[in-house]
Amino acid sequence: YAKAAGRSAFRAFAPEMAAKAQRRTEMEIDLRRAADEGQLWLAFQPKIDLGRRTITGCEALLRWDHPVHGSISPADFIPIAEDSGLILPIGEWVLETACRQGRAWLDAGLPPVSIAVNISAAQLFQRDPVGWVTGVLESTGFPPELLELELTESQLAQDVETVVAVFGRLRDVGIKLAIDDFGTGYSSLDYLRRFDATSLKIDRSFVDGMLREPGDAAIVRAAIALAHSFGLSVTAEGVEAEAQQDFLRRLGCDEAQGFLLGRPVPAAEFAALFQHT
Ligand code: C2E
Ligand code: MG
Ligand code: MG
Ligand code: MG
Question: What per-residue confidence (pLDDT) applies to 263?
């Protein structure tokens, strides 16, 4: 009986798996063309200083407007880009576009806001990652001090030695480095000791739960204390409610991001946030 059930379950499952694989392949083919055809763009989400209540910078978030399927989430296409190696050309486009935008904002008289760019580990494993990043800074004229790179804990864990080495050299150039989605990966204290990071971003799942679940609140409190004891600044992700912002401020969290404070928006809309006087 078990065998029969197993077999029929398999039969029902197989076409679904095949369809999924097919969608992945199609997405990869489409993604290969997306940058050339202008389907990719960057949204910018403000980062707020919780104490001073000012915008200190933004995070650049990749957007893909597919001609048929509409807007596709980076959570869906970044893993495909990583598996196929497309993350390298796409990641180049992201960094160049972000730095060019940052330079244009400075030229337009905006206050110096930092721009955080998400990177995948594979980008640090290419031939000359430091030369690549500094080359983009030079060609765009964007100051290294205003660039922050974000790497998730799980990406970081792929090859700790290499990431430590590359991070160290990027820090020497003046670039800031954030550990993203903190608390969702292995959260080894050893990373914090070894990485020359400048900030830690508390994953939004903990911020979401911290006013309901004592466990989430404990993680948020501990992450803030931990970061500060390592000399890192802390950013909370996914702040959606006034009460969450107040709670984080009381805990001494440095910065926050979230729909309450500003959604990811096109460049012109982000710049308009500075227009009111
Ligand atoms: P992330 O770096 O942790 O970015 C934060 C994500 O949370 C973004 O999702 C943002 O839109 C979303 N978010 C911000 N505030 C709120 C909030 O208050 N509530 C909720 N529910 N969500 C909020 P997004 O833009 O869909 O990006 C998902 C992930 O994709 C990013 O997570 C990042 O890991 C990755 N990603 C995005 N752009 C790039 C890129 O250019 N390169 C690479 N390698 N990864 C990227
Ligand atoms: Mg990020
Ligand atoms: Mg994150
Ligand atoms: Mg994330």
Answer: 98
How far is ligand 1, taken at its centre, from the CA of residue 45, in Å?
9
Please enumerate in sequence order all residues whose Cβ is within 8 A of that of 151, keeping only pairs 6 or more positions apart, or say none.
Answer: 118, 119, 120, 121, 124, 163, 177, 178, 179, 180
- Cα–ligand 4 centroid distance for 276 (angstroms): 31
Residue ranges of the chain whose pLDDT lies below 50: 1-3
82 lines ligand 1 (CB under 6 A): no
Q: How many CB atoms lie within 10 A of CB 12?
A: 9
For the chain, how long is the longest CA-to-CA vector?
74
pLDDT at 208: 97
> Is there an atom of ligand 1 within 6 Å of 162 CB?
no
CA of 181 to the centre of ligand 1 (A): 10
Percent helix, strand, coil in the chain, to 5, is 50, 20, 25
In ligand 1, the atom with minimum distance to the C-alpha of 260 is 18
Q: Which amino acid does the sequence have at 258?
A: G
Instruction: Report how far residue 208's alpha carbon sits from residue 52's, in angstroms, rounded to the nearest whole number.
Output: 23
Taking CA atoms only, the protein residue closest to ligand 1 atom 33 is 118
